[in-house]
């Protein structure tokens, strides 16, 4: 089967890498892809705009594409899935109307309110003065969100009234996010621990994926400005079987039922960003209408099932016929970012160490000591785990190729992802591999996974 993956980030590299492993896969194309997908075994880049539906349709017909898989949010919100389906192509990705769950924070909040899905209280504003007056009334802490798509950067967790007012001024006064910030949602700040809960949906059918958690803040200790994500790990120790059932019952099932009731049938991945409160209750922070990035990278490192078959089952309305099987190991991904991200950053820096020997064991003890993590059980296998699976994988996001050289081409440049017997060992392996890679002004957090480790269990 021929597959077309639409997108250019680390998530799309991971999707292409995993789908290329399927016995059913013949040719795997990525439009436009990046420097990593360009050299990935069994994968081909295609120089197409992810939001150019007409060009994508022409290519899919020419190459006899059997499945289109949309990775990022922008094509979904632009209606690319609708266009592909209307052209008779099989597409794993929700419709433009359903994608409003991610494309408009106001739509998502009103949807949750209509269907009794737990979330924070909120108000929506288009006028600067009204928003500022409301802030003076409610005080802080609050969360100020750009209504539209802002690449994961349109959320400000304001601990003080001054921070909240500055966020409103930036969005409604200065137009920082353009049309995406022309309307803002101001909501109560929820307390607890964040969890990423991702499922594959086909109408009424739902297949949960492995649990995960990410780190959205730029700086260690989960401080600093929000980013698209600085790292992630799977599984999420906080999500017990009982909590998973509660999330399904109180969040996922009402969401899917609500979409169907409103005439918005959903096919594709659905991500609920949740806050788990001290009372154990899950509350929705946000929806994404696709796989998360960087959660996808550790999740797919753990997936034993055929991803292509799972996607085909979703688009064919037969999710109950398949199952998602997971490796017992944990997986953790560390994002290596360009200096200045999520603000302004330079591009075009050469990256070295991508082809370095991957004997992580030699550095795992040092890395673990640096971040206060246990390495767990030593696999003693260098680049492979005791199951023979690849121990570490460098997924590219903001990269491009120039001849034989790989250059930086974005804010989040790489996601170095590794397996381990537990989260501590996965972290040690990922950091050992990251230490082998260099580019100018590179930075990454040294504490990815700290929340799991502090819980006293890392599996």
Which descriptors would you attach to this protein?
globular; 459 residues; 22 strands; 5-stranded antiparallel sheet; alpha+beta
Fold and architecture overview:
This protein is an alpha+beta fold and 459 residues long. It contains 15 helices and 22 strands. It has helices spanning 10-19, 35-39, 53-62, 73-77, 80-86, 100-103, 105-114, 128-138, 161-173, 241-261, 296-302, 307-315, 361-371, 423-434, 450-454, and strands at 2-7, 27-32, 43-45, 67-70, 91-92, 122-125, 142-146, 155-158, 184-188, 193-202, 205-208, 213-214, 217-219, 223-226, 231-234, 267-276, 282-288, 330-337, 392-396, 399-402, 405-408, 412-420. The strands form 6 sheets. A 5-stranded parallel beta sheet has the order 3-2-1-4-5. Strands 12-15-18-22-19 form a 5-stranded antiparallel beta sheet. It has a 4-stranded antiparallel beta sheet with strand order 6-9-7-8, sandwiched between helices. The longest helix has 21 residues, at 241-261. The protein is globular and about 60 Å long. The two termini are 35 Å apart. 51% of the residues are buried. Keywords: ATP-binding, Ligase, Magnesium, Manganese, Metal-binding, Nucleotide-binding, Purine biosynthesis. Pathway: Purine metabolism; IMP biosynthesis via de novo pathway; N(1)-(5-phospho-D-ribosyl)glycinamide from 5-phospho-alpha-D-ribose 1-diphosphate: step 2/2. Its EC number is 6.3.4.13. Its cofactor is Mn(2+); Mg(2+). Residues 375-385 have a biased composition (Low complexity).
